Predict the structure.
Amino acid sequence: MSKYWSNIVSRLTPYTPGEQPKDKSLLKLNTNENPYSPSTKVLDAIKLSVKESLRLYPDPESNDLKETISNYYGLSKSNIFVGNGSDEILAFIFQALLKKEAPVLFPDITYSFYPAYCSLYDIKYKKIPLDKELNINLEDYLINNGGIIFPNPNAPTGIPKRLVDIENLLQLNRESVVVIDEAYVDFGTESAVKLINQYKNLLITQSFSKSRSLAGMRLGCAFADEDLIEALNRVKNSFNSYPIDRLAQIAGIKAIQDEDYFNLTRIKIIEARKFLEKELFLINFEVLPSGANFIFTRHKSKDAITIFKILRESGVMVRHFSEPERISQFLRITIGTMEDMQKLISILKATL
Amino acid sequence: MSKYWSNIVSRLTPYTPGEQPKDKSLLKLNTNENPYSPSTKVLDAIKLSVKESLRLYPDPESNDLKETISNYYGLSKSNIFVGNGSDEILAFIFQALLKKEAPVLFPDITYSFYPAYCSLYDIKYKKIPLDKELNINLEDYLINNGGIIFPNPNAPTGIPKRLVDIENLLQLNRESVVVIDEAYVDFGTESAVKLINQYKNLLITQSFSKSRSLAGMRLGCAFADEDLIEALNRVKNSFNSYPIDRLAQIAGIKAIQDEDYFNLTRIKIIEARKFLEKELFLINFEVLPSGANFIFTRHKSKDAITIFKILRESGVMVRHFSEPERISQFLRITIGTMEDMQKLISILKATL
């Protein structure tokens, strides 16, 4: 540790993202990207915006983008926040709304960025264990807390919660903010967006990286009562006035507007997931129920790291989490095209 | 204040950026943007990158961009940090390196985002008054401190410090980090980058928004000893793994590589500034010496707000700061093209 560092720096345990390989020939099923290109309407609109006006700052409030999102979801613009990826929004949420006397609660097996945010902002937290089947049991969250956050569907398990269970939690937990991280919601999980106007403590984040095929552009959004959005705006405007560049703003607008392409691609991914689940079952894999664009799976007899290495040698990248021990025999596999899934199954059949 | 907010939120006094008007016919001299388009090499390279691969995450470490910057400045890649605009980098710097027992020092008249960062991270600070001529007097900073930060040239005055004075400060202040915010350095101020390898506590930030004409793309960089860069990386990786999108990374690379265009445009801006200074002098304005792409000026008898309003009615936007009172008779005017400056002078001559 350098004497020049603030105290917080040496305490940090940064998040480690999945590998981004230079080798383009690899079949990349490790970071939950969409196998389909962004919509041509998105690409064309970005290209048209690559011009002289890039010399000018973007709209600091991303008003047109917020307008488009609010119209799409039937909400008011004051219910919308946008950020440089949903990771940035989550960081603002932890700082603005989850730093309390009581600990924030999240699952013991979930998106591993949550504890990193807690270290960054010195926030107390308590991990709530998943149940025996690796489900989030929301009754376990009805304890003293400074906020609750979980992904729906959960990551890396992919298991979705029903909306009725989320609404039940919201009715019983009124004194702190409940954050639903819906990064993967569009692949077969029911969104809680329709509850925004009923619960003043509900906050939902979504991402353009997965279902909108825009991981490379960095864009996320959040929905909540305007009091919660105001807290996020205050933090954002004390951090970076212009977090979203001109091209990302136009990309987001066009991605929302091209609903046909959005539905076409997400349905293809759901079909490919069903195919993969069925095929894996036939070769002795157990697959957790998924509402996401990935599955969490383990072989009934073969070691996860062995399978991970075999796949890597065959040019397929998947993700393995060595901790906690309870999930160390699982692999997380991103859903690609039907051809990608067929290739994966062929390799597994040939090598296992 | 909502009961759901963290304590910090109600304490925040967010930064207010200059107005971004919808009316494109206005002559925009209020937010220090470059009047020239980004290089055609930059625009062409961005367009070529608007393709299917935007579905994939960008390189989280921006390695190619860091490589390009480090080669250009003759530094090691481990001396380089990049961020989503230099504002994001400044936020990380305050949290990672300036939160100390002793207060961070900065000028009383300077970039008004600095106190906003201090509120955001609960950092003690002490404002050091500019001298009678609105200069930063670095001898005043040789007191107990948890860090020192100032822009060179300073904003909104535009007055540059000489490198010899900065080196003198670095020799006498070894126990805390000295941050030089060089957002405007390329318009006639000497950079301290050549001192990076000599002083382990020197940190420099630069922006692609001004001299590289890329305000719309959000990109900044920082230079320091690798121990300081490591602190910034730890914070960044606890906040957002992928802060810089694919198109911004390629834009930054090409902007650095097109040195001819960079020099051509910044020299034009320096010439237009000299023209404006001379013409303003002839119509009874006092102009502070500027090493930036803006000037800070006051009329010897006419009220600043009156002039501000006259200009706005004539379609010209400049910036006025009502606080502190000491600068309330000044206007900050961004340097545009020679034609922009001629238009401004004509309006002033016709109306004052």
